[in-house]
């Protein structure tokens, strides 16, 4: 195993800090779920306000949780594994408290400002979820799943995008839920499908650096000496930091295209912004 490159070490340190429990007994969880709930709540509130939504408290909470947990729920259902958020009351308490205690969206910076400030945070949150999906595949009790490379890449895409896709399909931010076609299928562009293909890419990067599948060491062997074939190149934390750094660049590219690229006819930029705001 190699030490993390110097440029990656600050990101690794940030990941460790975010994963460290806030308090060993009173708050035995890190800042990652709180940050995730904060980001999803902002997006959900913004979309609900634009749609003129005035739903009940229950519908508001369920819609928010579907956006926040959709990727994890769908990926664990596909893998026939217990859904982590249902194994204790802690996730519900953390996400519900964060969502309902957040100030009104009108008192917060605009989505453009938040998206421009937080690409790294967004990438760290998304990479953490994708890495968890890859590890669930690697440690799966079924040999068919644990020995499959394609399922790791597929679950990476699901963990990254299923929350936004599920919320779009049900239009959970509207006053009356209805079936709808997700934006990435409507537009069919690389920008609209960023969360889908970037999830697969991050799963591949993380898997390659941690040797999550036997095919990865063979690929690495083409670039490195034979003595590195039987061990991962980086630790799990450093691999997530590397993948998150690359994902940050992808998110910066999306933020530029959605929020800062000069409009050409207005239509293309509007479609891109709809995709960004709904695929969280």
Mean pLDDT: 88
Question: How widely separated are the two ends?
Answer: 34 Å
Mass-distribution shape: globular
Strand content: under 5%
Helices and strands, in order, run as HHHHHHHHHHHHH
3D structure, described in words:
With 280 residues, the protein is mainly α. The chain has one domain. The protein is 65% helix and 0% strand. It has 13 helices and no strands. It has helices at 9-19, 32-50, 57-78, 90-101, 111-117, 119-138, 143-146, 149-170, 183-187, 194-210, 215-221, 236-260, 267-278. Helix 2 packs across helix 4, helix 6 crosses helix 10 and helix 10 (194-210) runs antiparallel to helix 12. The longest helix is centred in the last third of the chain and has 25 residues, at 236-260. It is globular. The mean pLDDT is 88.
Topology:
Blueprint: H1 9-19, H2 32-50, H3 57-78, H4 90-101, H5 111-117, H6 119-138, H7 143-146, H8 149-170, H9 183-187, H10 194-210, H11 215-221, H12 236-260, H13 267-278
Helix pairs in contact: 1-12, 2-3, 2-4, 3-8, 6-8, 6-10, 6-12, 8-10, 10-12, 12-13
Keywords: Membrane, Transmembrane, Transmembrane helix
Transmembrane segments: 59-79
Descriptive key words:
single chain, 280 residues, mainly alpha, 13 helices, 65% helix
What is the gist of this entry?
The chain is an all-alpha fold and 280 residues long. It is 65% helix and 0% strand.
